[in-house]
Structures are given as structure tokens and as C-alpha cells.
Amino acid sequence: MATIATTTQVPTKKAQRNSLWWDAFRRLKRNKIAMVSLAVIIVYVGIALGAWTGLLYPGVGIGDPNYQYQEFSSQHPFGTDVLGRDVLGRAVHGTATALSVGLIASGISLLIGIVLGAMAGYFGGKVDALIVWLYTTIDSIPYILLIPSLTFVLGRGLINVYIALGVTSWVTLCRLIRGEFIKHKNRDYVMAAEVLGAGHTRKMFRHILPNVTHLAFVQFGLGFVSAIKIEVILSYLGLGVDPRTPSWGIMLDDSKLELARPFWGNLTAATIFMFGLILSFNLFNEALRDALDPKLKNR
Amino acid sequence: MFGITLITFILFNMLMGDPAVRFAGRHATQAQVESIRSELGLDRSLPEQYIFYVKQIVTFDFGRSWATKQKISTMISEGIGPTLSVTAPPFAMSIVFCIGLALFTSYFRGTVFDHGVVVTCLALLSVSSLVYIILLQYFLAYHLGAFPISGWDPSWIGRWEYLFLPWIILFVLTLGSNILVYRSVVLDETFQDYVRTARAKGLSSQKVFAKHVLKNAMIPIITIIVIEMPFLITGTFLIETFFSIPGLGGMIIKGLNESDFPVIKAMTVVISIAYMFFNILSDILYTVVDPRIKLG
């Protein structure tokens, strides 16, 4: 009853937010798995920020050659690697790399996907044909080849990984947004906005876009996970970040020949860190999708 | 089709700098660079180069690899055998196994068993594929010595012992996502009206699943399978590099590491064409499986 009371008092804009986002938020809050995953993700963000600002393991890049391949100990929970660097510190800094890749790469693809999808769906005609042609073409080149070719062309390095992953992963979102825009562009509220004198840009991004943001949210989560996974593989293959950049992929590459020594630090640390992040992201995504799905509303 | 050739052409020709300089090496004279440039056809205008490139694709003659000087068309036809013998068996096994398990979990939906399978799948998906390969290779091949660590035998009989471990790994790698996808497809079907009708007729639950649900779920499942077909070629680049199997995936990675542009270009085109072919095939199969749909 309380929600109904507020919707009647507050003007329309807030009421609308109540209906979709608060509903979703309330449903998420009830979901214990989602909340635990969210907490884990927040911990990871904290770790990444700590590494990025230099509070956690500041001098991890410089190892001490006298201390290579140390056993697991309280000082070095995952031992030290071939250059005597603390493996836990490397994994912590790898978290910053992974999260930045996920965030920036899926941010880029979000931007491209929304703008192109909105334009294609809204304007239709030639613009639509061109954009559809562009994404079907990009989609038919397997990412396994497209991304390495791009990083190859751009050169190695973190920034180029962002760009390569970003410009290759917007297709699904673009397709979804385009479909929604086609559906929405002739609805009454858009016509009303036009009557009030709203231009194309205003109608597209101020009026229609808020109605499709939930799609963007879910896609952002999915893109985040796959960007991190692909970065690890690319870095492993030597096509991703520079070897001096701390990355889980580089750690896995190092670990391959170290198992026979036996030294397990790199493999264990990278796997545990990645497992925690990706699993909580996957679980949170599932919950978010359910929460935003209007069909499951009254569950 | 036109799009793919154009985009790969732009990608490789405009952005990669001057390959002739790279190719000639650091100590080449200007004249040597020029002669290589004309040998590679780089002294011609861009439209001419583009037409030459399209001609290469149509005639399936991609020239020679810069690294090994072999003809690329021979390299591809030699590589496809090993690649398929690595990918095809686990691909088929995984499909059968995962559809079976998906039917099972949707039959017991909402139970502990169902939740257990879903959580296990999500957990399986959260480990990098690299970790599976490294660990399984280490334990099964190095530690237990059950399989050779890596290697290849060109003869059909000799290659078996090298194939088992890649098969196991590929099978494990595809489990997580396959089960989740098929499960959601089958679950969608179980809430349809015809299921209720069939139950109301007095059919047993098991029979409804085996006959009605499976048949209807086959439509989306076939699409998924056909669209995943290019995986048969691309799916193994990691495994092929790990186990030094002379297939197409390993060829791509080698090409990338050695800046072997003709190889990369040829592979991109070949795989893109395969992808398109399977896309069209899935559209056609729709009409075969579901008579309600007609090709428009």
C-alpha cells in the first residue's frame, strides 16, 4: 500500500522510476544469491581501486631475484614467481587490469551499440540498411580472428585491448536496441513529444532510450564477463596486454611451465581470483535479468 | 560477402603499415623493398589490389605464406583434417550428452538436482578455458602418464593416442554453456499449452517429454547447433597450440605471431564464408523441421 500512496503524491517522472527500477531493486534485494554476488563484486572493485591507487602492493612490478619460487607462506600467501615477485600482489594488480578491461571494453560497446541501434531503429530506411549491413558483416567474422587482427594492427597494449574488444562486441546490443526502437518509435508518447516540439535527438535519447535501458544493463553485464575472459586468453597467447602489465592471462602463461617444478602459485592465484569474479558476475546477471523481466513480475 | 572482403581488405591494407618494409627486413636497400613491393602487388592502386584480392578468394588461391613459402590453399586443405578429427567427436558427444541432461534437469525442474546442475554449470563457466587445458594436461598426461603430453601422427591409426586428451578437454569445455542453453530451450517448451493437453489426454509425464517436448525443442536446438558449426574449425586454436597439432587453429595463431598476413587474411575469409554458409543452412533447416515456416 505504501508504494501506491507515494505514486499518487509524486509527479509522473518519479512514479515511472518507482514502477520499473524500484521494483527490480526490491526483487534483487530479496534474492540472497544476488546480494552475496553483489557484495563479492564490490570487494573486487575495492581490491582493484586499492591496487590502482597504489595502496595495495605498490612495488609489485619489482621482484627480488634472491627470492624466486618461494613456498606459500604467511608473508607470500601464493609464494613468489620466477622474478621473485609476490604472486598475490600480481593477482591483485591483475584484478585492476581485468576490471578495467571489462568496464571500458563493454562501455565502448555499450556506447556504439546504443547509438547505432537507436539510429537504425529510429530512422529506418537507408540508415537502417547500412547499419544492419555493418553489423551482420562484423558478426560473421569470428571474434577469434577479428580481435587478434585488430590488436595486431593496433599493436600490443592495454588501451588497444580495450578498443579491440569494444569495437567488436556491440552487435548483440545493437540488434536488440534496434528492435526496441522500431517498436517504440510510433508509440503515442513519442508522437506527443514530437507535438511538443522535441527534435530527433531528444526523442531518441530522452524519451525512447529510458524505456530500453534494462536491455543495456543486462548486455553490459554479459559483455563485462566475456571481455575479461577474452582478455585472459589474448594475453596468454601474447596478443593482449604487454607482458609487464600484471594480468591473469600472463600469470597463466607463466604457470604452464612451472607446474613441473612444482610451483602452483600463479595458477592457483589467477584461477581463484578469476573464478570468484566471473561466478559472482554470472549469478548477479541471472538475478538481474529475472528482476528486470516484466513477465516474472508477480512472482 | 562483399562486406567481409571489403572489411578485411581495409583492415589489413590500410592499417597495418607497409608490409614490404617489414617483409624485406631491417637491412634491405630501397631497391629490394621496391622489388618486394611489386612482387606482392603493393605498387598497384588500391582498387586494383582489391580486385586482385577478390579474385584470390573466388579462385581459392591465396598465394603463398610469407613465413613458410607454402601455398596457403594447400596449407588449409592439409590442416582441415587434423582439426576436424580433434573437434568433431567431442562436438557430437557433447551435444548428445547435454541434450540428454537438459531433458533430465527440466523434467526435475525446481528440485535440488536441477539447481545443482545449474550452479555447477555456472561454476564450470567461471574458470578460464586455459586452466582446464593446463590442469588436465598436467594431471592426465604429465602426472599420470595416461596420454602423451603433446604431438601428432599423420597416419589415421597412429593419431588416436594423441587425440583422446584433446577430446576430453573439449568435451569438458563445452559442457557448461551447452547444458544451460539446452535447458532453457527445453524449459521454454515445457510451459507450452500442448504439454498440458498431452498430460490431460492421460499421457505419462515421461512420454510427454520424450515425444512432444523433445520434438518441439529440436527446432531451436538445431539452429544453435548449426550456428555453432564454425566452432569445428575455430574451436581448437588453444588446444592445437597446446598439443602441437598441425591444424587450422594452430595455423592462425602461428600466422598471428609471425605477422604472416596472407595466412591471417585467408583464414578470416574462409571462416567467415563458413559462418555465412551455416547461417543460411540453419534458415533452410528451419523449414524442414517446422513445416509452418516457409522461406520468404
Distance between the termini of chain A: 18 Å
The share of residues in helices of chain A is: over 70%
Question: Which stretches of chain A are low in confidence, meaning pLDDT under 50 for 5 or more residues running?
Answer: 1-16
Briefly note the structural class of the backbone of chain A: mainly alpha
Which radius of gyration of chain A do the C-alpha atoms yield? 23 Å
- The arrangement of helices and strands of chain B along the chain is HHHHHHHHHHHHHH
Task: Write up what this structure looks like.
The complex is a heterodimer of chains A (299) and B (296). Chain A has 299 residues and is mostly helical. Helix content of chain A is 73%, strand content 0%. Chain A has 13 helices and no strands. The N terminus of chain A is likely disordered. The mean pLDDT of chain B is 78. Chain B starts with a helix and ends in a 7-residue tail after the last helix. Chain B has 296 residues and is mainly alpha-helical. Chain B is globular and about 85 Å long. Chain B contains 14 helices and no strands. Chains A and B meet through helix 5, helix 6, helix 11, helix 12 and helix 13 of A and helix 1, helix 6, helix 7, helix 12 and helix 13 of B.
Summarize the entry for a quick read.
The complex is a heterodimer of chains A (299) and B (296). Chain A is built from 13 helices and no strands.
Provide tags for this entry.
heterodimer, A: 299 residues, mainly alpha, 73% helix, elongated, disordered N terminus, B: 296 residues, 14 helices
What is this structure's SSE topology?
The complex is a heterodimer of chains A (299) and B (296).
Chain A (H helix, E strand, L loop, with lengths): L1 H8 L2 H19 L1 H22 L33 H37 L1 H16 L2 H12 L3 H11 L2 H14 L3 H8 L4 H9 L4 H25 L10 H9 L8 H28 L7
Chain B lengths: L1 H13 L4 H6 L5 H10 L6 H13 L13 H36 L4 H14 L3 H15 L16 H31 L2 H8 L4 H24 L2 H4 L2 H6 L5 H10 L3 H29 L7
